[in-house]
Design goal:
The complex is a heterodimer of chains A (250) and B (268). Chain A has two domains: 100 residues, Alpha-Beta Plaits (2-Layer Sandwich); 114 residues, Pectate Lyase C-like. Helices cover 21% and strands 27% of the residues of chain A. Chain A has seven helices and 15 strands. In chain A, the strands form three sheets. Chain A has a six-stranded mixed sheet with strand order 5-7-9-11-14-15, covered by helices on one side. A five-stranded mixed sheet of chain A has the order 6-8-10-12-13, with no helix packed on it. A four-stranded parallel sheet of chain A has the order 1-2-3-4. In chain A, a hairpin with a 2-residue loop joins strand 12 and strand 13. Helix content of chain B is 42%, strand content 16%. The longest helix of chain B has 17 residues. Classes of the chains: A alpha/beta (250), B alpha/beta (268). Chains A and B meet through loops of A and helix 7 and helix 10 of B. The complex binds adenosine-5'-triphosphate (ATP) and magnesium ion. Magnesium ion binds next to helix 1 of chain B.
Amino acid sequence: MSTGSPSPHKTALEFKSTSLNVPSLILISDQINQFEHHLKEKIAQAPEFFKHSPVLIDLQDINKKGLEINLAEFVDVLKIHHFLPIGVRGGTKEQNSIAIALHLPVHSAHSTMPPAQQKNQPKTIKPENQAEQSAQTPVQSNGIENKLVTQPIRSGQRVYAKGDLIITAPVSAGAEVVAEGNIHIYGALRGRALAGAQGAEDSLIFCSDLHAELVAIAGNYKVSDDIEDAVKNKPVQISLDDQALIIQPI
Amino acid sequence: MARIIVVTSGKGGVGKTTTSAAIAMGLAKRGHKTAVIDFDVGLRNLDLIMGCERRVVYDFINVINGEASLKQTLIKDKRCNQLFILPASQTRDKDALTKEGVGKVLEELSKEFKYVVCDSPAGIEQGANLAMYYADDAFVVTNPEVSSVRDSDRMLGILASKSRRAENGDEPINEYLLLSRYSPARVKAGEMLSVDDVQDILSLELLGVIPESKSVLNASNAGLPVILDEQSDAGKAYVDIVARYLGEDKPHRFIDEKKGILGKLFRS
Ligand SMILES: Nc1ncnc2c1ncn2[C@@H]1O[C@H](COP(=O)(O)OP(=O)(O)OP(=O)(O)O)[C@@H](O)[C@H]1O
Ligand SMILES: [Mg+2]
């Protein structure tokens, strides 16, 4: 085997679903100086352990208290101290869009959602804490090929997933993303997204900023002109109800 | 080994050649031996902007075909002895450029030069594809308007999938945004996209904003890369861009207004 040129017969990579254990960092105070001070104390206790450690920023506590924070500032401080933030949880709508702008995935936490919005959640959505459960139980492999894309999908590009498609970057106008299962986009959707491409009507599309040219589930579609202004430019969830596409803000 | 930089855009007339000439001169003036190649076969332009059009003997295609050596063909700049120009042919047809031929020339240049700047033709055809194929870094020149941004996005997709680095599974090309012909007043009037709007759509590291400036036309009429006009705003913008590319931390300039068309439409 030569180490230089890759063999053309073997695929160079493979995506598999995985779960990993990540420390969450619960923000308690809105004082950035205090935060940095305490952070330094913690690091001093175990510098090697914390260096380049991934961390999930948990905003539930701070939002419960109604404290206002500058998320970008906290993220900066974490990065300065060699943490690698990999997402936020329990953020408000505003915080979530800031997180997305900082390229941080948004993880939801029901307890912080306003009750009115909770009622609107369709029943098909799986309980949110499932992800955390699966951190303990190994994920079943049932032959479905999910796909993760971390780079922007550019105009003229097309991505197809036989299972779910998870994208942690924007989808440009003129790009097309297609999945036989669900589509999750942690970023702006400006192109076309088609879920349930083989007819699975319970497929869903999530995106954190809707500007789509077209969205479709199991062949039922809406083009940009048909999408109400009220849901444009917002994080949404798209589902199919009796051949009608339902677009709801989340 | 040289770093190969492609200056590309998709859309025509956005300022690729202006940029290629400026950054090549800028890198050379910083003491790095630099070659700049005109890939726009049939439409020679770079040699005019570099002011060396009357010294062209051989061209890029002659070198590819083995009709002349690189040494015979490269034109040494009169103002900076670290800068060399490889002109395009005006007479040949575009198919004369081949992947193997371009690869051979770049490999030979790489032995002697620190930077090789490739001035791409417009479009997403053969010429543009060859200009970017061997690149390590891409300067994506974009004007603050929807069609230019869209074409840059398209080109970014091609950089990510059709370059040598992509084909070999190597580290991807470093992509940088150069927002050119920017006019804060027109952004304010809602006639142009703002820096934020463009970055929002392209999600790309901004290497610099080049203002719309009369000095560009004056410089090109005088056969002078605009970066040598150190008093001009465009000249200063390119000096900054070269410095940032070389790793210096320079605050962005020439961005007065924040929100453009998109900002007006979408932000309440
Ligand atoms: N910052 C600027 N301000 C004003 N005019 C500019 C600026 N940059 C470029 N121009 C003008 O725009 C025109 C096109 O520039 P240039 O030739 O560099 O573009 P290009 O992308 O190389 O074009 P092509 O696609 O045809 O190769 C020229 O007339 C040039 O003078
Ligand atoms: Mg040109």
